[in-house]
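Researcher: Last one for today. Full complex below.
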Amino acid sequence: MQKLIRIEPAKCVGCKTCELSCSFKNVGEFAPSRTRIYNEIFLDEAKFITVTCMQCDEPWCEKSCPKNAISKNMATGVVTVEEVKCVGCRTCVSACPFGMIKYVDSTGKADKCNLCGGDTPECVAFCPTQCLTLDEEDKPLRQKMLRFVNTIKDGQMEV
Amino acid sequence: MNKGWKGQLLRVDLTAGTCKIEALNEEWAKAYVGGRGLASKYLCEEISPDVDPMSPKNKLIMATGPLTGTYGAANGRYMVVTKSPLTGTIASSNSGGYFPSELKYAGFDMIIFEGKSKHPVYLQIRDGKAELVGAVHLWGKSTNETEDAILSEFHGDAKIACIGSAGEIGVHYACIVNDKHRAAGRSGVGMVMGSKNLKAVAVRGTGGVQVANPKAYRDAALEAYGMLKENPVTGQGLGALGTPVLVNVMNQSGGLPTRNAQTGTFEGAEEISGETLASTYLKRNKSCMGCIISCGRVTKIVDNKYAGDGEGPEYETLWAIGAACGISDLAAITKANYICNEAGMDTITFGATIGCAMELFEKGLVSEKEIGMSLNFGDSDAMVKLAEMTAKGEGFGKKIGLGSYRLAESYGAPELSMSVKKLEFPAYDARAVQGMGLEYATSNRGACHVRGYLISPEILGLPEKLDPQETEGKAGWLKIFQDFTAVVDSSGVCLFTTFGIGVPQFTKFCNAATGTDMSEEDLLVAGDRIYNRERMFNLKAGIDPSQDKLPKRMLEEPLPDGPHQGQVSKLPKMLPDYYKVRGWGKDGIPTEAKLQSLGLS
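Model: Here's the assembly. Have a good evening.
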């Protein structure tokens, strides 16, 4: 089973601590513009949505890379860019339908979430609400399903 | 000097229409931490304390701290420092949201605005570059409309601070609103911004903030997070119920000033409590940048004549527009709160001024004809109407826009203004909580709760429980709270974190961020320095120590009910202690020796 970052949007409070901790660990400064996880704030709707690379099983970025610099490790689940092979052609950036791999000017390489290379991802370690968890099991999905099941259960009890 | 601090400031000459980048004064930054302290130092160096706050000679400084834009606790704050048109004292108003951090990411620790533009303008900042652009098309727009307009015409990811109609028309307690719902609220900083024809500041920054010792910084953050999560106030209370959790607490403590502080308990408290808000109009809680507390209240009212949506009301607002006016209609309070936010008005002074006007009306000092309606305590419709009139500068709203002191004085009854140095006191009765009374009397911006929040020990029991009626020792407690708060405000961190973390944690943060090697004692000395710097500004501005006082009602009219029935403020007993603990003369003026020890002489 792959351990992945699981996201439960209802728990997000829009603090951007994930962006801060990600950039601090991976680029050495607090810079939301250089994060690999994105916490978008919708002030009018009071909605906060967090997204990051979902480590696809058949990654568009991997398939599109002309230098075979991107690969998925099926044991760890992580899709990684090998920097020495990457030529900065940005093909992967165009290919990813989710906008989760980007080109970084300062390094001239493609950059994406690598789950912090085996440590607990920094965003998960610092998320104050457990909106982000690292788990083999998709617990947020089960929670969502259970909420739906509970409405059916409540309905039946009234009958 | 690029660890913690960015090391540069932006100087904007509104008269000439120019923007200039300057190096931040490193020596001052170390001595005054940043934010409130550093901006106060710049203000004192650059303007004469006797300047007319509304003249082009007054300056307006927006300042972040060395921890702004990082993680650790709630590290997304900035302060607006200027000379206040409401009080004549130094003003420093704090706000969070996302704007302050973005300013750092754009490369600046602070912006100094000077002069006055001929026409309405706003400032656009993009990664180290800044320019003033026309804002005639934004003038008159609400804070929400202004932000939306700038997002679409400048940059969709920009963060924006702006004034609403209140700042434009000279409401004396106009605030500066950022990220739609966060406000540098008190002392009329928005009126100064309006007087300079400056409508907004829009920032887009893609840079970052580095710290001197990343490992030590991360360790400090993990420690602080743990402590904040375990603390019942920061870990649960403020997230679940927000600041309104205090309505029931203060009412039960007999210290919720009601009907212009005629009593200390409010029969309608339950209806305006945090618990009631949570079960009615609250949609969810939210955080500011880098904050793990999430006290923000996102609310919405539907199916009601007061329909609307936005953020708040906060505790102080529920008290000011609610209990202080005898109003228990939560929808009306929430609506007036939205009106204040969109016009950019401080809800505390607005509500307290309405409460004062209600007492003036009930005492027959102002007529129904003059107001244009009757104005009894509890009249929520009249209150909402006056909020709209104040925001537009119409009729009696113009007088409400002057604040309670000027209003009451104009009817020959200044003693009915519940204020110190013309700033209305907030939601804690000085007769029920003695230390808070001392704070109101001595705070450098007038009767304010966020300079030395002794409610924490006197009511909440943090870090230890003090008897609210005891006077012994309160001066010492207050000095430490005031000095520490000055440091917290200067660092760029939210004051609410201090329920859970203290001087040791802030010392670690500041040292790891900036590379300094301060002891805990050094940090508090910096706070003392900031406090005395502000005090000296006020003295030179003509606010002499005789102004360290409370309204007559607090000293002479005993609380008529509640657990502290019969009590008055014992300020005269505490004030000499306070001057002594501060190292000031008996006359309340810092001694030469004291100033020298702080490097201020």
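Chain B touches chain A at residues 69-71, 98, 101, 105, 179-181, 205-211, 214, 218, 221, 225, 229, 239, 283-292, 294, 298 (CB under 8 Å). The first strand of chain B starts at residue 8 and ends at 13.
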